[in-house]
Amino acid sequence: MLEMSLYGGAEVGLDEAGRGPLAGSVFAGAVLLPADFCDERLNDSKKMSERDRYALREVIEREAVAWGVGEVSAAEIDEINILNASFRAMRRAFARLQERLPAGVEVERLLVDGNRFRPGTLIIPYECIVKGDAKLAPIAAASVLAKTYRDDYMLRLHEEFPMYGWDRNKGYPTAEHREAVARYGLSPYHRRTFCRRFLVPEE
Q1: What whole-number distance in Å separates Cα of residue 47 and Cα of residue 176?
Q2: What are phi and psi of 152, to 5 degrees?
Q3: Residue 200: partners with Cβ closer than 8 Å, 6 or more residues away
Q4: What is the C-alpha end-to-end distance of the chain, expressed in Å?
């Protein structure tokens, strides 16, 4: 069973999805759960079935005190690099969460999955937790939102560019995806800096 908090109080979990793909935005989730939240299915989103992820998303959005999802585009990733883009997505997710906070509720701490975070202009304590999405419920909930919203986004892009197989690979550098890029070239949603790393020819 995941722990509900690290120190107690109003702690927001932050996690991202989509750091490794060749194409598409990186997404992040931010979730403030109620102290009595309990769902045994909740886990690191990568360890959950697709069915459970989407079922949990409905539960999280319904029962969370507040939640938010942030997105940073492929063009922004090329401009500022994926690490900074991940932090930016988290900050945007937290901004969306703040818009949904009930009156009188103040966030006391951010719980960030991973070993680094750059808060930008945020003035709030934060803690980085390696593999936090497998340890703390707020981070796991954030990972579910980030993963499902990014998957939905990649399915929409697949309708526009079906040749890359994004409905299956979600933009990750599978052999199928790289072969499609070699054959068809890059789409407007490809991360140029990533594609060069994988020796994919640009048009």
Answers
A1: 24
A2: -60, -45
A3: 22, 178, 181, 182, 186
A4: 49
User: Rounded to whole angstroms, how far apart are CA atoms 69 and 111?
Assistant: 15
Q: Which of 92, 119, 110, 107 is nearest to 28 (CA)?
A: 92
Of 4, 151, 134, residue with least CA distance to 65: 4
User: For residues 143 and 113, is the Cβ–Cβ distance under 8 A?
Assistant: yes
Structure tokens at 48: 């959950």
* Residue 150 near residue 170 (C-beta atoms within 8 A): yes
pLDDT tens for the chain, 203 residues long, are: 788 888 888 999 999 999 999 999 999 999 999 999 988 899 888 888 999 999 999 999 999 999 999 999 999 999 999 999 999 999 999 999 999 999 999 999 999 999 999 999 889 999 999 999 999 999 999 999 999 999 999 999 999 999 999 999 999 999 999 999 999 999 999 999 998 876 544 44
Quote the radius of gyration of the chain (alpha carbons, Å). Answer: 17
Distance CA 84, CA 193 (A): 14
**Paired tokens of 20:** 């490794």
SS3 sequence of 132-177:
HHHCEHHHHHHHHHHHHHHHHHHHHHHHHCHHHCHHHHCCCCCHHH
Say what the pTM is.
0.94
Q: Which is nearest to 16 in space by CA: 99, 79, 76, 92?
A: 92
